[in-house]
Design a protein that fits this description.
The structure is a single chain. This protein is an alpha+beta fold and 187 residues long. The chain has 2 domains: 39 residues, no CATH class; 144 residues, no CATH class. Helix content is 16%, strand content 42%. The chain contains 3 helices and 11 strands; from the N terminus they run H-H-E-E-E-E-E-E-E-E-E-E-E-H. Strands 1, 7, 8, 9, 10 and 11 form a 6-stranded antiparallel sheet that branches. Strands 2, 3, 4, 5 and 6 form a 5-stranded antiparallel sheet that branches. The chain starts with 7 loop residues before the first helix and ends with a helix. The N terminus is likely disordered.
Length: 187
């Protein structure tokens, strides 16, 4: 979770106000350490609703929306939508180059067969990891889990019809053990 969800300009002003000309003061060192260790790398703890998070390290707050589809049985699910602030609009960021504009987990009474984790890389860009297993004979089945890591990228040579920013698959692996609930693997 971001400890200091502030723009780079505001961070600079706060740093100058606290540090002034003495860059080695205890307050200055603490401020720089807190900002560098929390605002860029690390897991994101998303709450239901709008999460204001800078997903591309440009100092501007973007949005990850997490909502719950509650249908009164064991098959409710969470849905996610990522939107990047781009001038005076927000661009929807799909998982893959155009496949999933909103993505969701899959839950059953026995186990969760698909879910996502969100974090930032060391440069402050969004990384989403998908944990998914085959359905098999049912929600209570035990299967190997496929783990796909997606990283936010900017399309530098835009192609008409494709998004300018998207979560590109960069790594895929299969867990060695079999799981019923993918969240066991996510811990």
């Amino acid at each position: 979770m971001e400890l200091l969800p502030i723009s780079k300009r505001l961070y600079g002003l706060i740093t100058y106000a606290i540090c002034g000309l003495n860059k080695l003061s205890a307050g200055c060192v603490l401020l720089v350490w807190l900002h560098s260790s929390s605002a860029f790398a690390g897991n994101l703890d998303l709450h239901y609703g709008v999460n204001h998070i800078d997903i591309n390290a440009d100092g501007v707050m973007d949005v990850i929306l997490k909502v719950r589809w509650e249908n009164g049985n064991a098959h409710s699910f969470d849905k996610y939508m990522v939107a990047l602030s781009y001038g005076n609009i927000f661009l929807e960021v799909p998982l893959g180059d155009s496949a999933k504009y909103e993505f969701r987990n899959e839950e059953g009474a026995d186990c969760i067969v698909e879910d996502y984790s969100f974090r930032k890389d060391d440069k402050g860009w969004l990384v989403v990891t998908e944990y998914r297993r085959e359905f098999g004979k049912g929600y209570a089945d035990v299967q190997k889990v496929e783990i796909t890591t997606y990283k936010l990228v900017e399309e530098t040579d835009p192609i008409p019809g494709f998004p300018l920013y998207f979560l590109k698959p960069v790594h895929k692996q299969v867990a060695k053990k079999k799981y019923c609930d993918v969240r066991e693997l996510m811990r």
